[in-house]
Amino acid sequence: MKSLLYLFVMSIGCSFAIQSQNKVVGYIPQRSVKAINTETFKRITEAIYFGLDVDENGKLDIEKSRDDLNYLDSVRQIQAVDLSVCFGGWGRSDFFAPVCASDQMRSAFCKNVLQLCMDYQLQGIDLDWEYPKNEAQLNDYVSLVKELHEVLQPHDIGISIAVGFWDKQAGLVSRMEPYLKGINLMTYDNVSPCKGHASYTLVKRAVKRFIKHGIPAGKLFVGVPFYGRHRWQRQKTMAYREVPGLDNSISKKGLYKGYFFDTSFTLKRKQTFIKENRLGGIMIWELGHDIDCTEPNSLLNAIDEFNK
Question: Residue 21: what pLDDT?
Protein backbone atom coordinates (compact mmCIF):
# COMPACT_ATOMS: atom_id res chain seq x y z
CA MET A 1 0.00 0.00 0.00
CA LYS A 2 2.83 2.40 0.87
CA SER A 3 4.51 1.75 -2.47
CA LEU A 4 1.24 2.47 -4.29
CA LEU A 5 0.79 5.78 -2.50
CA TYR A 6 4.40 6.66 -3.22
CA LEU A 7 3.85 6.09 -6.93
CA PHE A 8 0.77 8.31 -6.83
CA VAL A 9 2.67 11.11 -5.12
CA MET A 10 5.54 10.87 -7.59
CA SER A 11 3.16 10.92 -10.53
CA ILE A 12 1.38 14.00 -9.20
CA GLY A 13 4.67 15.74 -8.57
CA CYS A 14 5.76 15.15 -12.18
CA SER A 15 2.51 16.52 -13.58
CA PHE A 16 1.50 19.36 -11.28
CA ALA A 17 -0.77 20.95 -13.85
CA ILE A 18 -2.92 17.82 -14.24
CA GLN A 19 -5.58 17.67 -11.54
CA SER A 20 -8.58 15.43 -11.03
CA GLN A 21 -11.78 17.27 -11.88
CA ASN A 22 -14.18 14.37 -11.26
CA LYS A 23 -14.74 14.10 -14.99
CA VAL A 24 -17.30 11.59 -16.24
CA VAL A 25 -16.76 10.11 -19.69
CA GLY A 26 -19.56 8.03 -21.20
CA TYR A 27 -19.49 5.87 -24.32
CA ILE A 28 -22.58 5.84 -26.53
CA PRO A 29 -22.75 2.98 -29.06
CA GLN A 30 -24.92 3.35 -32.13
CA ARG A 31 -27.58 1.13 -30.57
CA SER A 32 -27.99 3.50 -27.61
CA VAL A 33 -27.99 6.91 -29.28
CA LYS A 34 -31.75 7.53 -29.11
CA ALA A 35 -31.77 6.68 -25.38
CA ILE A 36 -29.60 9.74 -24.72
CA ASN A 37 -31.22 13.00 -23.66
CA THR A 38 -30.42 16.26 -21.90
CA GLU A 39 -30.68 14.61 -18.48
CA THR A 40 -27.90 12.21 -19.53
CA PHE A 41 -25.68 15.06 -20.67
CA LYS A 42 -26.24 16.94 -17.40
CA ARG A 43 -24.46 14.13 -15.59
CA ILE A 44 -21.38 13.67 -17.81
CA THR A 45 -18.55 15.88 -19.02
CA GLU A 46 -17.72 14.04 -22.26
CA ALA A 47 -19.77 11.83 -24.56
CA ILE A 48 -17.89 9.46 -26.86
CA TYR A 49 -19.87 8.22 -29.85
CA PHE A 50 -18.98 4.61 -30.69
CA GLY A 51 -18.26 4.79 -33.42
CA LEU A 52 -17.26 5.55 -36.96
CA ASP A 53 -16.18 2.78 -39.33
CA VAL A 54 -13.00 3.25 -41.36
CA ASP A 55 -11.92 1.35 -44.48
CA GLU A 56 -8.41 0.03 -45.14
CA ASN A 57 -7.55 3.22 -47.05
CA GLY A 58 -8.36 5.51 -44.13
CA LYS A 59 -11.71 6.72 -45.48
CA LEU A 60 -14.41 7.38 -42.87
CA ASP A 61 -17.89 5.91 -43.35
CA ILE A 62 -19.73 9.04 -42.30
CA GLU A 63 -23.04 8.24 -43.98
CA LYS A 64 -23.76 5.34 -41.62
CA SER A 65 -23.34 7.64 -38.60
CA ARG A 66 -24.57 10.98 -39.89
CA ASP A 67 -28.01 10.76 -38.27
CA ASP A 68 -26.49 9.68 -34.95
CA LEU A 69 -24.04 12.56 -34.89
CA ASN A 70 -26.74 15.06 -35.84
CA TYR A 71 -28.96 13.75 -33.04
CA LEU A 72 -26.22 13.96 -30.41
CA ASP A 73 -25.35 17.43 -31.61
CA SER A 74 -28.98 18.51 -31.25
CA VAL A 75 -29.02 17.29 -27.64
CA ARG A 76 -25.83 19.10 -26.71
CA GLN A 77 -27.20 22.32 -28.18
CA ILE A 78 -29.64 22.20 -25.25
CA GLN A 79 -27.28 20.71 -22.67
CA ALA A 80 -23.62 21.44 -23.41
CA VAL A 81 -21.15 18.54 -23.26
CA ASP A 82 -17.88 17.72 -24.98
CA LEU A 83 -18.49 15.35 -27.88
CA SER A 84 -15.91 12.94 -29.27
CA VAL A 85 -15.96 10.09 -31.78
CA CYS A 86 -14.32 6.70 -31.32
CA PHE A 87 -12.50 4.81 -34.06
CA GLY A 88 -11.96 1.08 -33.61
CA GLY A 89 -13.16 -1.23 -30.88
CA TRP A 90 -13.72 -4.95 -30.70
CA GLY A 91 -14.57 -6.22 -34.21
CA ARG A 92 -14.01 -2.78 -35.76
CA SER A 93 -10.22 -2.53 -35.59
CA ASP A 94 -9.25 -4.15 -38.89
CA PHE A 95 -8.41 -0.83 -40.52
CA PHE A 96 -5.67 0.05 -38.04
CA ALA A 97 -2.94 -2.28 -39.31
CA PRO A 98 -2.98 -1.21 -43.00
CA VAL A 99 -3.64 2.46 -42.28
CA CYS A 100 -1.01 2.80 -39.58
CA ALA A 101 1.63 1.00 -41.68
CA SER A 102 1.41 3.44 -44.60
CA ASP A 103 2.70 7.01 -44.49
CA GLN A 104 0.23 7.99 -47.19
CA MET A 105 -2.79 6.39 -45.53
CA ARG A 106 -1.89 7.76 -42.08
CA SER A 107 -1.80 11.22 -43.59
CA ALA A 108 -5.13 10.70 -45.36
CA PHE A 109 -6.75 9.38 -42.19
CA CYS A 110 -5.52 12.36 -40.16
CA LYS A 111 -6.92 14.81 -42.71
CA ASN A 112 -10.25 12.96 -42.80
CA VAL A 113 -10.46 13.00 -39.00
CA LEU A 114 -9.73 16.73 -38.84
CA GLN A 115 -12.43 17.42 -41.40
CA LEU A 116 -14.93 15.35 -39.40
CA CYS A 117 -14.07 17.23 -36.21
CA MET A 118 -14.48 20.59 -37.94
CA ASP A 119 -17.78 19.60 -39.58
CA TYR A 120 -19.35 18.41 -36.31
CA GLN A 121 -17.46 20.69 -33.89
CA LEU A 122 -15.99 17.74 -32.03
CA GLN A 123 -13.79 18.38 -29.00
CA GLY A 124 -11.88 15.12 -29.34
CA ILE A 125 -11.39 11.69 -30.84
CA ASP A 126 -10.91 8.32 -29.18
CA LEU A 127 -8.83 5.41 -30.51
CA ASP A 128 -9.42 1.77 -29.62
CA TRP A 129 -7.22 -0.72 -31.47
CA GLU A 130 -7.99 -4.18 -30.11
CA TYR A 131 -5.14 -5.13 -30.44
CA PRO A 132 -1.75 -4.61 -32.17
CA LYS A 133 -0.21 -8.04 -32.81
CA ASN A 134 3.52 -7.32 -32.96
CA GLU A 135 6.21 -4.72 -32.38
CA ALA A 136 5.87 -3.29 -35.89
CA GLN A 137 2.17 -2.62 -35.34
CA LEU A 138 2.86 -1.08 -31.95
CA ASN A 139 5.37 1.29 -33.55
CA ASP A 140 2.92 2.15 -36.33
CA TYR A 141 0.21 2.90 -33.76
CA VAL A 142 2.49 5.33 -31.95
CA SER A 143 3.27 7.02 -35.28
CA LEU A 144 -0.43 7.46 -36.01
CA VAL A 145 -1.14 9.01 -32.61
CA LYS A 146 1.78 11.41 -32.98
CA GLU A 147 0.66 12.51 -36.45
CA LEU A 148 -2.94 12.92 -35.31
CA HIS A 149 -1.75 15.11 -32.45
CA GLU A 150 0.22 17.31 -34.86
CA VAL A 151 -2.87 17.76 -37.04
CA LEU A 152 -5.49 18.17 -34.31
CA GLN A 153 -3.67 20.03 -31.53
CA PRO A 154 -3.58 23.41 -33.34
CA HIS A 155 -7.39 23.23 -33.38
CA ASP A 156 -7.58 22.35 -29.67
CA ILE A 157 -8.91 18.86 -30.46
CA GLY A 158 -7.68 16.22 -28.02
CA ILE A 159 -6.98 12.51 -28.35
CA SER A 160 -7.93 9.81 -25.87
CA ILE A 161 -7.25 6.11 -26.08
CA ALA A 162 -9.11 3.09 -24.74
CA VAL A 163 -6.79 0.35 -23.49
CA GLY A 164 -6.75 -2.91 -21.59
CA PHE A 165 -5.41 -3.03 -18.06
CA TRP A 166 -2.39 -5.30 -18.55
CA ASP A 167 1.30 -4.42 -18.56
CA LYS A 168 1.86 -4.48 -22.33
CA GLN A 169 -0.88 -1.90 -22.81
CA ALA A 170 0.67 0.30 -20.13
CA GLY A 171 4.00 0.12 -21.93
CA LEU A 172 2.37 1.14 -25.21
CA VAL A 173 0.56 4.08 -23.63
CA SER A 174 3.79 5.32 -22.03
CA ARG A 175 5.13 5.91 -25.55
CA MET A 176 2.01 7.83 -26.61
CA GLU A 177 1.30 9.74 -23.41
CA PRO A 178 2.66 13.15 -24.52
CA TYR A 179 0.11 13.20 -27.33
CA LEU A 180 -2.91 12.08 -25.28
CA LYS A 181 -5.41 14.02 -23.19
CA GLY A 182 -6.80 10.91 -21.52
CA ILE A 183 -6.40 7.15 -21.11
CA ASN A 184 -9.64 5.19 -20.71
CA LEU A 185 -8.80 2.03 -18.77
CA MET A 186 -11.08 -0.88 -19.64
CA THR A 187 -11.07 -2.18 -16.08
CA TYR A 188 -13.77 -4.77 -16.63
CA ASP A 189 -14.22 -8.21 -18.26
CA ASN A 190 -11.57 -9.67 -15.96
CA VAL A 191 -13.71 -12.60 -14.85
CA SER A 192 -13.22 -13.78 -11.27
CA PRO A 193 -15.82 -16.16 -9.78
CA CYS A 194 -15.29 -14.54 -6.37
CA LYS A 195 -14.61 -10.85 -7.02
CA GLY A 196 -16.44 -10.30 -10.30
CA HIS A 197 -15.20 -8.92 -13.60
CA ALA A 198 -14.67 -5.30 -12.53
CA SER A 199 -13.44 -5.49 -8.97
CA TYR A 200 -12.01 -2.73 -6.83
CA THR A 201 -8.80 -4.77 -6.64
CA LEU A 202 -8.54 -4.78 -10.44
CA VAL A 203 -8.86 -0.99 -10.49
CA LYS A 204 -6.09 -0.51 -7.94
CA ARG A 205 -3.73 -2.89 -9.71
CA ALA A 206 -4.35 -1.36 -13.13
CA VAL A 207 -3.79 2.19 -11.93
CA LYS A 208 -0.62 1.22 -10.09
CA ARG A 209 0.66 -0.50 -13.23
CA PHE A 210 0.10 2.50 -15.48
CA ILE A 211 1.59 4.96 -13.03
CA LYS A 212 4.63 2.72 -12.69
CA HIS A 213 5.08 3.15 -16.45
CA GLY A 214 5.18 6.93 -15.99
CA ILE A 215 1.60 7.78 -16.94
CA PRO A 216 0.40 10.92 -15.08
CA ALA A 217 -2.39 10.06 -12.67
CA GLY A 218 -4.50 12.94 -13.95
CA LYS A 219 -4.76 11.36 -17.39
CA LEU A 220 -6.12 8.04 -16.14
CA PHE A 221 -9.85 7.32 -16.28
CA VAL A 222 -11.17 4.26 -14.46
CA GLY A 223 -13.57 2.26 -16.61
CA VAL A 224 -16.77 0.98 -15.00
CA PRO A 225 -19.36 -1.32 -16.61
CA PHE A 226 -23.06 -0.62 -16.68
CA TYR A 227 -23.58 -4.32 -17.35
CA GLY A 228 -22.97 -7.59 -15.56
CA ARG A 229 -20.87 -10.53 -16.70
CA HIS A 230 -21.57 -14.07 -15.56
CA ARG A 231 -19.14 -15.46 -13.00
CA TRP A 232 -18.96 -18.92 -14.62
CA GLN A 233 -20.22 -18.50 -18.20
CA ARG A 234 -17.87 -15.75 -19.27
CA GLN A 235 -19.55 -14.95 -22.59
CA LYS A 236 -22.89 -14.14 -20.98
CA THR A 237 -23.66 -10.52 -20.15
CA MET A 238 -26.72 -8.62 -18.92
CA ALA A 239 -27.42 -4.89 -19.06
CA TYR A 240 -28.08 -3.26 -15.69
CA ARG A 241 -31.46 -2.04 -16.97
CA GLU A 242 -32.49 -5.67 -17.64
CA VAL A 243 -32.36 -6.63 -13.96
CA PRO A 244 -35.92 -6.76 -12.57
CA GLY A 245 -36.71 -5.13 -9.23
CA LEU A 246 -33.40 -3.34 -8.79
CA ASP A 247 -34.22 -2.37 -5.21
CA ASN A 248 -33.91 -5.94 -3.96
CA SER A 249 -32.46 -8.09 -6.76
CA ILE A 250 -28.73 -7.29 -6.72
CA SER A 251 -26.78 -8.18 -3.58
CA LYS A 252 -24.40 -5.77 -1.86
CA LYS A 253 -21.54 -7.66 -3.54
CA GLY A 254 -23.14 -6.97 -6.92
CA LEU A 255 -24.45 -10.47 -7.66
CA TYR A 256 -27.66 -11.28 -9.48
CA LYS A 257 -28.27 -14.86 -10.72
CA GLY A 258 -24.57 -15.42 -11.33
CA TYR A 259 -23.92 -12.01 -12.92
CA PHE A 260 -21.57 -9.50 -11.28
CA PHE A 261 -22.58 -5.83 -11.49
CA ASP A 262 -21.19 -2.56 -10.22
CA THR A 263 -23.59 -1.08 -7.68
CA SER A 264 -23.92 2.36 -6.13
CA PHE A 265 -21.78 1.03 -3.26
CA THR A 266 -18.93 -0.22 -5.47
CA LEU A 267 -19.11 2.89 -7.65
CA LYS A 268 -18.75 5.10 -4.59
CA ARG A 269 -15.72 3.09 -3.49
CA LYS A 270 -14.10 3.45 -6.91
CA GLN A 271 -14.89 7.15 -7.10
CA THR A 272 -13.37 7.69 -3.66
CA PHE A 273 -10.21 5.98 -4.90
CA ILE A 274 -10.23 8.20 -8.02
CA LYS A 275 -10.63 11.36 -5.94
CA GLU A 276 -8.07 10.44 -3.28
CA ASN A 277 -5.43 9.62 -5.89
CA ARG A 278 -6.21 12.54 -8.19
CA LEU A 279 -7.03 10.49 -11.24
CA GLY A 280 -8.68 12.07 -14.27
CA GLY A 281 -12.12 10.66 -13.56
CA ILE A 282 -14.42 7.80 -14.42
CA MET A 283 -15.29 6.19 -17.78
CA ILE A 284 -18.55 4.35 -18.47
CA TRP A 285 -19.25 1.51 -20.87
CA GLU A 286 -21.96 2.13 -21.75
CA LEU A 287 -24.62 4.73 -21.02
CA GLY A 288 -27.46 2.87 -22.73
CA HIS A 289 -27.19 -0.05 -20.29
CA ASP A 290 -28.46 2.09 -17.42
CA ILE A 291 -32.06 2.79 -16.44
CA ASP A 292 -33.41 6.33 -16.78
CA CYS A 293 -30.83 8.51 -15.05
CA THR A 294 -33.49 10.47 -13.18
CA GLU A 295 -34.51 7.33 -11.27
CA PRO A 296 -33.01 6.70 -7.79
CA ASN A 297 -31.39 3.36 -8.74
CA SER A 298 -29.65 4.74 -11.83
CA LEU A 299 -25.90 4.08 -11.86
CA LEU A 300 -25.24 7.34 -13.67
CA ASN A 301 -27.27 9.16 -11.03
CA ALA A 302 -25.18 7.51 -8.30
CA ILE A 303 -21.99 8.74 -9.99
CA ASP A 304 -23.44 12.22 -10.33
CA GLU A 305 -24.57 12.37 -6.71
CA PHE A 306 -21.04 11.50 -5.54
CA ASN A 307 -19.60 14.36 -7.59
CA LYS A 308 -21.94 17.02 -6.18
Answer: 66
For 210-221, what is each residue's pLDDT tens digit? 999 999 999 999
Cα–Cα distance, 1 to 277 (Å, whole number) = 13
- Report the alpha-carbon distance of residue 300 to residue 110 in Å, rounded: 33
β-pairing, 220-225 with 227-230? unpaired
Q: Which domain holds residue 64?
A: 2-307
The per-residue pLDDT for 246 is 79
- Model confidence pLDDT, tens digit, residues 37-95: 999 999 999 999 999 999 989 999 999 999 999 999 999 999 999 999 999 998 899 99
Rounded CA-CA distance 79/95 in Å is 34
Q: What is the pLDDT of residue 245?
A: 83
What mean pLDDT is predicted for residues 114-130? 98
**What pLDDT shows up at residue 248?**
78
* Burial readout 106-135 (b: 16 or more C-beta within 10 A, e: otherwise): beebbebbbebbeebebebbbbbbebbeee
CATH of the domain at 300: 3.20.20.80
Q: How many domains does the chain have?
A: 1
Name residue 15's amino acid: S
